[in-house]
Design a protein that fits this description.
Layout: H1 2-26, H2 30-35, E1 37-44, E2 54-56, H3 58-71, E3 72-85, E4 88-99, E5 104-116, E6 119-127
Parallel strand pairs: 1-6
Antiparallel strand pairs: 1-2, 3-4, 4-5, 5-6
Amino acid sequence: MPINSSLDAMTAATVTTIQQFNDALNGRDVEMMMALMAGDCVFENTYPAPDGTRLEGQARVRAFWEEFFAAAAKIELEIEEIFAVGERGVMRWVYRWTDREGQPGYVRGVDVYRMRNGQIAEKLSYVKG
């Protein structure tokens, strides 16, 4: 019984951290996003296809998010579904944006997360199409 309740607590914490991260993303709050990521975090972006770009460490990941937010006038990441087991989580999403020229766009995708000590150690992003 203690093993299941420990796993349940870890799973709930994983889901909560993923939700907090995406709330911070929608709020363009880079400070909060980085506080939720481990110092040696890994983020694999979706661009360029097919493999995206792999960024390692707080400084490189932070720089990516700052450039990402500067490129779009408006953003919204809508969570379609989150599920987790222990320190592993998956989130399906729709990302909508309006660029600086006023052109809208959207893409659907999935993020695969790995947590460590309550922080995001890995965020691997994939898109459809």
